[in-house]
Amino acid sequence: DWVLSDYLVDMGRPEAVEWTLERILTVLKEGGISLYREDFNCDPLPAWTNADAQKDSNGNRKGITENLYIQGHLELWDGILEAVPHATIDSCASGGNRNDLETIRRGFPLHKTDNQYANRTYQQAYATDMARFIPFFGTKADGDTTPGNSTSQANRYSLRTANVACMVVNYNCLDSPIDWDIVDDIVQEHKFVKDLIYSDYYVLENWSHNESDWAAWEYYDIEKGEGYAIAFRRDNAEGTKTYRLRGLEKETEYKIWFEDQNKPEIRTGLDLMKNGVEFNLPSIESSDILHIQKAD
Known about the structure:
The protein is an alpha+beta fold. The chain has helices at residues 14-31, 45-55, 64-83, 101-104, 120-133, 156-161, 180-193, 269-274; strands at 3-4, 8-9, 35-38, 88-91, 138-140, 166-168, 200-203, 214-221, 226-233, 240-243, 253-258, 265-268, 277-280, 286-294.
């Protein structure tokens, strides 16, 4: 009676919610665990509509099973957050198929999608628009589609593609040699950029998964007077792009420098926003970070 269409627990039943919550809390508390990860690799709609039809074959109860299910599911998560101090919920539904407002009030997607998650271009496209809606999400740094981005070879392009709020370094340290210096460099970069994740966000290059396009975005904290812009040159893209920065103070002087070049220069906010900054990336599948800081 608690299972819809033989595969979906009916969270519209209070007793099912109560039993499931008790089981989850037992595991969390006995294991000293504060992170609850829930995956959802199924399509619930057929189970909901079948249950609706069983309630009323005339179709007068369409949506009632889904409505009650979602209420019960949110009650389940509220119970976890209430019972476990500092609990964190990782919301996964074949990746990012459950990113509605009520869900992201309670949890966030550390693995944002199952679709093309080994493809750096797609991951950049996802990050470009996802950051407009959900500041905190995760990306794993692998990209098994090319030899230079396998789990046995680290490179900056792959790791920087995953340089979002939660960067998952997905390398098998037991399988084969890895250039840990590169990994360490990008982890150190991440320690800086992660502190800007709730600052103002600007898309510098429109959403695209075309290999002829670049990907680029900017974070800037006007109170701290610092930020960064990151850009990616893809497989078939041209080697130079100029981006106008956003959100700066016109009359203020800023020190800017590229992470991979470290040649600082001083320019005004007006100049940076009007004339922009040239990113020169001679190699395909390359990237760089432009640091932005109010001049002393």
